Amino acid sequence: MILRTHYSGDIHPELDGQEVTLAGWAHEIRDLGGICFLVLRDREGLAQVTMVAKRTEKPLLESVRQLSRESVIRVVGSVKAEPKAPRGYEIIPISLEVLGRADSPLPLDPTGKVDAELDTRLDSRFMDIRRPGSLAVFRIESAVLQSLRQTFYDHGFLEVITPKIVATATEGGTALFPISYFEREAFLNQSPQLYKQMLMSAGMDRVFEIGPIFRAEEHDTRRHLNEAISVDMEMSFADHNDVMDVLERAMVEAYRFVQENCKRDLDVLHLDLVVPKTPFRKVTYSEALDLAKEAGKPTMEWGDDIDTETERALGSIIGEHYFLTDWPSSIKPYYSQPYEDRPDVSKAFDLMHPSMELASGAQRVHDPEQLVSRIKDQGLDPDGFEFYLKAFRYGMPPHAGWGLGLGRVVTTMLGLENIRDAVIFPRDRRRLVP
RNA sequence: GUCCGGAUAGUGUAGAGGCCUAUCAUGAAGCCCUGUCGAGGCUUCGACCCGGGUUCGAAUCCCGGUCCGGGCGCCA
Predict the structure, then answer these.
(1) Per the confidence metrics, is the pTM higher than 0.90?
(2) What's the rounded Cα separation, in Å, for the pair A389 and A379?
(3) Structural domain boundaries of chain A?
């Protein structure tokens, strides 16, 4: 049996006289003596329960006065339209039931009157998310996921789930977390890349996956985590420009969807969301170096990966989402396809927000011999990729794809200071609990 | 990994060698209060990260450790 008939957000003054049952947390109790206000909070907002001492049964009033903040309660009462009350209504209680008593003191203040540091909030994340501002972020994240999935379905993609426990490194470069797998060593997957590509050989044509990826890098910044949610796609019979189009569309749709469906959450966060303008500007790697030089950042050589300072400089010059294209082949993974006429440049791209990289993708190498030679060129052993290479030898279509960091999308969309704000239970260099 | 900064009641803070029996807010406990909505008023409770050192005297200075924040590096 569902213990409530309404969320607080469902109630309005026109329900005057109707009996309702609310369930939630005792957000605040303000006892003025002759009149006592109890503010109940649920996922959809706040509702004021009002008790005039003279007109309220003693035991009911007593139970409210003994309530600890943040206890879980269920209130049966009648709606009363009341101009003096917040949102024009209040609940006159008939009965109150304590479903879960809260200890005191609380690990942080869920009303937000007193701030808490990120570390304190993460230690007690369950309590932090009771704060409307934290909840709003994750409601928006849910909307972003809903919108991204819808965009994929609209473009004829199939949702897939690939293994997170793998035998070997996906692509070299990044460090992996080793795990014990019965009598063998295995690893947590750093990317669904190889599996997505094999599904192109399988003829699934267009696939996407939204799931965790694991990087054992000791990075320690506001935009990196060791467990991240990657929004990944792969598309057959398409090139890098085609998948950039899908990415641009997915981003813009996500912004629109949030703007349309998360008005209250955006209000809570005091945000006026602006949908990025399309088309996103495309800046080649070489142009980016020139821009950086003009801005007085001449230290980078062609072939260097773009460092943080240059990335920031570009961000402030360009000032909106942009694609960074035509990367040197040497600094992109082996599966990125070089241009036929200038093999030192690849059909690889990053989607950039002015403050950080959001996604990276490419048209892929689909010729098995070229792939083997690219693997060797990057100092990797093709034998370790046999399960992957096999899929290329029996009819692999041309394909392209990308991976997008969900946490970074939400962080940049909402202007959050730290990616940990956008992840419910973040995993970083130090944090493994909760 | 490295550089810089930090650690004071449950939470957020003040504090610059004696003014500290440590500030303020929030909270908790109690009392007053019939329209609060960051309610108000009064009383009470609750803290200097750990270890060493300097000094007559250390929250404050020094050393080591632990933890935290930020920058960079590393990072499809």
Answers:
(1) yes
(2) 16
(3) 8-100, 128-280+320-422
- The dihedral sign for the CA sequence A133, A134, A140, A146: negative
pLDDT per residue of chain A (434 residues) written in tens, 0 to 9:
999 999 999 999 999 999 999 999 999 999 999 999 999 999 999 999 999 998 899 899 999 999 999 999 999 999 999 999 999 999 999 999 999 999 989 999 999 889 999 999 999 999 999 999 999 999 999 999 999 999 999 999 999 999 999 987 666 667 888 888 999 889 999 999 999 999 999 999 999 999 999 998 888 889 999 999 999 999 999 999 999 999 999 999 999 999 999 999 999 999 999 999 999 999 999 999 888 888 776 678 888 888 888 888 899 899 999 999 999 998 999 999 999 999 999 999 999 999 999 999 999 999 999 999 999 988 888 888 899 999 999 999 999 999 999 999 999 999 999 999 999 999 998 888 88
Angstrom distance, A224 CA to B7 C1'? 24
DSSP code at position A155: T
The nucleotide lying nearest A213 (C-alpha to C1') is: B76
Distance, CA of A32 to C1' of B42, in Å: 15
Q: How far is the CA of A310 from the C1' of B73 (A)?
A: 14
How remote is the C-alpha of A192 from its chain's centroid?
17
What class does CATH assign to A8-100? mainly beta
Domain A128-280+320-422 has CATH 3.30.930.10: yes
Chain B: positions less than 7 Å from a protein CB are 1-2, 10-13, 25-29, 32-39, 67-76
Q: ipTM score here?
A: 0.89
Angstrom distance (rounded) from CA A101 to CA A264: 29
Q: What string of DSSP letters covers A400-425?
A: EEEEEEHHHHHHHHHT-S-GGGGSSS
